[in-house]
Amino acid sequence: MRPMPSMEKLTQLSKLNSGDKVKLHDGSIAEFVRLKQKNFIGLIEGTSYNISVESFVEVLEKIDIEAKNRELQEEFMKLVKDDYFYISLKGEAILYQFDTIKNGKIIGINPVTKSLTRIAPSLFGGKISI
């Protein structure tokens, strides 16, 4: 297999969704998180790495984004007041305490500042059991 030029790799990586699986030149498999300028963030065995675009070889598995969104929506609809959950923002998890759902937005309480925040359901990452 001939190596891909950088621009072609960047183009392919820019079309990926968080959670897609990619193969790297050393044979390892990473879960794509997000693209940066010359690198991308990937998870390998649960650890986050800054991976060079040049290390990308091919896409192994694309997630069904619609099914994942339906699954997350079902999960956040089951939240009850005071449940802890996290949102995923640029590959980082942020913790909130559930208050309510209002006008299609999740109302979360920042556990440190106790302030209320309106959160788009698309940012919902999952419930946390404490």
In short:
The chain is α+β, with helices and mostly antiparallel strands and 130 residues long.
Q: Can you give a write-up of this model?
A:
The protein has helices at 6-14, 65-77; strands at residues 21-24, 29-35, 39-44, 47-52, 56-61, 84-89, 92-102, 105-109, 116-119, 124-128. A hairpin with a 6-residue loop joins strand 8 (105-109) and strand 9 (116-119). The radius of gyration is 17 Å and the shape is elongated. A five-stranded antiparallel beta sheet has the order 4-3-2-1-5. The chain has a five-stranded antiparallel beta sheet with strand order 9-8-7-6-10. The model has no long low-confidence stretch (mean pLDDT 86). With 130 residues, the chain is of the alpha+beta class. The chain is built from two helices and ten strands; from the N terminus they run H-E-E-E-E-E-H-E-E-E-E-E.
Keywords:
single chain; alpha+beta; five-stranded antiparallel beta sheet; 130 residues; 10 strands; elongated
Main structural class: alpha+beta
pLDDT averaged over residues: 86
* Number of distinct helices: 2
Sequence of secondary-structure elements: HEEEEEHEEEEE
* Portion in strands: over 45%
For the terminal residues, how far apart are their CA atoms?
48 Å
Show the helix and strand layout.
Layout: H1 6-14, E1 21-24, E2 29-35, E3 39-44, E4 47-52, E5 56-61, H2 65-77, E6 84-89, E7 92-102, E8 105-109, E9 116-119, E10 124-128
Antiparallel strand pairs: 1-2, 1-5, 2-3, 3-4, 6-7, 6-10, 7-8, 8-9
